[in-house]
Amino acid sequence: MDGILLVNKPVGYTSHDIVNKLRGFLNTKKIGHTGTLDPDASGLLVCGINKGTKIMKYLNNDTKVYNAEICIGKSTDTLDKTGEVLEEKRVKKLKNVDAILKTFMDPYVQIPPMYSAVKYKGKRLYEYARKGIEITDRPKREIQVDNIKRTSEISYDNDYAYFNYYVKASKGLYVRTLSYDIGKKLGYPAHNYNLERLQAGEFSIEQSYTLKEIEANQYKIISLSDALSFIPTYPVIDDYKKHIQHGMAISLDYFNDETRIKIVDDQGDLRGIYKKHPKEPKMVPENIFHKD
Questions:
Q1: I need a surface site. Which of 113, 146, 279, 285 has the fewest CB within 10 A?
Q2: Given 38, 62, 80, 181, which residue is catalytic?
Q3: Span 173-193, mean pLDDT?
Q4: 38 is in which domain, residue-wise?
Q5: Mean of the pLDDT values across residues 105-109?
Q6: Is 38 a catalytic residue?
């Protein structure tokens, strides 16, 4: 049981809660995940099972796609609906919403929220936040937003405005912060009201399984090789079979000057991941996967 399992995380669970659930369902302890989802968010959580944990570092930089619902007119300390209200402003009529959303496709520098796992001087930001300490010089990050668009009509209720939007962006995006920043450009306090992750890299929500389906053994694990479909594939051949078994370097002559490759056996099982040496004409091992 080695590979990637795609989970449709429900609202109310932390990503760590999902890992604990899977450990019980699958009767194995070696489980991890990429791309943490907040408890208030739902959707796709990519989980590595056993040897699948060794390939998660290749999936961590994947582009993510979200469907978000924003509430305009109220901000909170957590930037979502679970937090304490910080500011309110009555909303009558929003203008230029679509044009303002498009401005986030320019270089977008984002400051991570205080209630986040980003580290500052050895501690998570949420540790400071829980003590009422605000770090004003939080590390900024540049986010590449590939696409953002409104996907619903704007509704007005009790002096607040709501609408849904779709966003596709690089690793590291906090949608909670994005919703707050959208409100700021519109001239209002705002927070993220609902959030669902639809896609992570080449994996989509349609491929995922609910906790009930996994508990009922109605799921399929994606093999190590298939999960890394974006890495060029080469077969094991006699010339370098022993090199792989012993974790040795292999001449670049076999691999068409690739930057990184994966090597699979006759059964399609992943045996090794190699990368190009920075100075010498050879491939050196990053990960070796021995047969059990």
A1: 279
A2: 38
A3: 97
A4: 3-62+201-226
A5: 89
A6: yes
